[in-house]
Automatic annotation (TrEMBL):
It is found in: Cell membrane. It comes from Aquamicrobium segne. It comes from the Bacteria. This is Oligosaccharide flippase family protein. It is a multi-pass membrane protein.
């Protein structure tokens, strides 16, 4: 009887993983396509230097909004998944605290970018004309952070269907609005349209989050939310520092490149290469979204066999996707470059480095969630710090090679981090005490 129960338990995990992956994939397609479509249109309508302008500005938006929300969002997803069934009152306070902190951090960063836009553009980016675009995107930082943390709460509740529905609506809004804004008013119109899409998304995601909490008998509350402060010190602060070391590191490295001769052109080339990486990592990152709450539950139950099954499913899925994508790029990669009006003979080496680096990343992504899901947040921060240092130092040493130098540095950093994640996962699993599922 017990083996049958274990089999049914693992079958339930497989079902949750499969349906979560399906819904998350459907919901993320349009959102992930927006930067790609936007980059193609800019390269055709305005040229590669304008792609660089868009890349630096959009990268600032993404870095600031993720800095505001990533740490708190990871804390919310992990701990709401672990407490929603056993302690719904705590889950409600965690949700309230997450929204409160992410909203406040987003507002502070938005005001800072607006206030210091001239200084950032002149003294850091060495491109004074970017100050205007930084001011335009500054309000979007707060809106994006607010949306991201609410989406994280829905993921913690494992409401993948609701998340997919919201992502689909958001993606359609952006795909329609951003190209229209670009066509009518150039880069200014594109960023304004993106902001309107974000704002519309806020009116959809907030009711969905509250309805999801009610469906799980969780009362969303700001009152007493700060009593969950230990969750901040144990999870959100190290995750916040990890996001400070991760997403803004990309911005730092592009800043190094943009200060070189033909800097905006090289950043534009790098940004297009990263769009290729985003295509390859599109499905693997969705796998990770499904993985985090499931792994968190497995670690909370000390179920080592379940954790191994979930990791095996996710890593296997990602490696199959990566192998297929690498094969497609080997056959049709020239067409991708021509889509952006690039020269395959000149630029192909850069893109092949990105393709193989992204294949490595796809296998590493599930292992990268082990520190978060197992509660070893400070160890995860240390690992991310090593990646950040490797990436920045490598970019600095290879800065005279422009886009090629930054993609090489990125590939080396991810390769080393994958080895560290593998060793850490083996260490954590060896120290767990197996508790049988009955």
């Amino acid at each position: 009887m017990q083996p049958l129960r274990k089999l049914l338990h693992r079958s339930a995990d497989l079902k949750t993983f499969g349906f979560g992956l399906l819904w998350s994939t459907l919901g993320s397609v349009a959102i992930r396509l927006t930067p790609l479509i936007t980059t193609i249109l800019i390269s055709h309508w305005f040229g590669i230097e304008s792609v660089g302008t868009f890349a630096v500005t959009y990268g600032t938006l993404m870095s600031a909004s993720m800095l505001a929300a990533t740490g708190v969002s990871l804390m919310a997803t992990r701990n709401i998944a672990a407490t929603v069934k056993t302690d719904p009152e705590t889950a409600g306070r965690l949700a309230g605290m997450a929204v409160l902190l992410a909203g406040a951090a987003g507002l502070i960063l938005a005001l800072a970018v607006y206030q210091f836009s001239d200084a950032i553009a002149r003294h850091i980016l060495k491109q004074p004309e970017l100050a205007y675009y930084l001011r335009i995107i500054s309000p979007l930082i707060a809106i994006s952070a607010f949306n991201n943390v609410q989406a994280a709460i829905l993921k913690g509740l494992q409401l993948f269907k609701a998340t997919a529905r919201i992502d689909t609506i958001m993606g359609l809004l952006m795909i329609i609005a951003v190209p229209s804004g670009l066509y009518l008013y150039g880069l200014t119109g594109g960023f304004v349209a993106l902001g309107l899409a974000y704002l519309a998304g806020s009116t959809i995601i907030s009711p969905a989050m509250l309805a999801g909490l009610r469906a799980h008998n969780v009362r969303f509350s700001f009152r007493g939310s700060l009593s969950q402060w230990p969750m901040i010190t144990r999870f959100a602060i190290p995750a916040l520092l990890a996001s400070l070391l991760f997403e803004p590191v990309n911005w730092i490295c592009t800043t190094i490149i943009v200060n070189q001769p033909n800097g905006l052109e090289q950043v534009g080339l790098y940004f297009i290469a990263i769009q290729l990486e985003a295509l390859l990592l599109f499905a693997p990152q969705i796998v990770v979204q499904v993985l985090i709450p499931m792994l968190s539950t497995g670690f909370a139950e000390h179920d080592r066999r379940r954790i191994r099954t979930i990791l095996a499913m996710s890593i296997g899925t990602n490696l199959v996707i990566a192998a297929g994508f690498v094969a497609v790029m080997m056959l049709f990669g020239d067409w991708f470059l021509l889509l952006f009006k690039l020269d395959p003979a000149r630029d192909w080496p850069i893109f092949m480095i990105v393709v193989f680096a992204a294949a490595i990343i796809s296998g590493a992504l599930p292992l990268g969630q082990v520190p978060v899901s197992s509660g070893h947040m400070w160890t995860g921060l240390l690992i991310t710090g090593g990646w950040a240092a490797t990436f920045i130092i490598g970019t600095w040493l290879l800065q005279d090679q422009g886009a090629k130098g930054i993609v090489i540095a990125r590939a080396v950093a991810w390769g080393l981090q994958t080895l560290v994640y593998l060793a850490f996962t083996r260490f954590v699993m060896s120290r767990m005490k197996q508790i049988s599922v009955v």
